[in-house]
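Sanity check record (used in CI):
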Amino acid sequence: MSSENLIRSFIAIRLPEEVLNTLKLIQNSLRDRLPQARWTRPEGIHLTLKFLGEVEESVVKEIAGTLDSAIKNFKPFRLELQGVGAFPKLAMPRVLWVGLQPKEELIRLQKSVENAVRPFGFNPEKRQFRGHLTLARLKGERWSEGLRKYFLESKEISDGMQMSVEEVILYRSDLKPGGTVYTAIRSCALS
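Expected output for RNA 2',3'-cyclic phosphodiesterase:
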């Protein structure tokens, strides 16, 4: 299999501009305190439902064709940003994120997307889905109690902000020297 036929891809929800601007405010408030962090470009932040990885182009086309049926029973719904956190845990952060209020519609939508790609060889995640928006990745960062407290207080910038979910998008992800470029392959509107 030649790498020219592989497409790095994932299925996600695009964020509205006002949410991206709010996430950028949080990033800017932390940037000087975490100089070694790799900050996600605000325009690159999205709500991932399923990461597919390197997939043959023909399979990506088939997956694009199944997305409409996977989401056909979902009506548009609203999500609320809620809290901040870190993976694997706040005591040893590797990924900083803004959370989303757990919503049954989002969990069901993610499961439906996951079930739609299962016939193509994509097994369900072993971890429970937890909707989040990645702000930064840390490697060897010093995480003082004061910085941890400051980060937890940054949630006040985004808490309560709402967004409407109206579509699911199959994205192509191209790694470029200037950063990752995301291109929509297929956009499927919720009914």
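Residues 5 and 57 are 5 Å apart (CA to CA). If this sentence no longer matches the regenerated tokens, the check is flagged for review.
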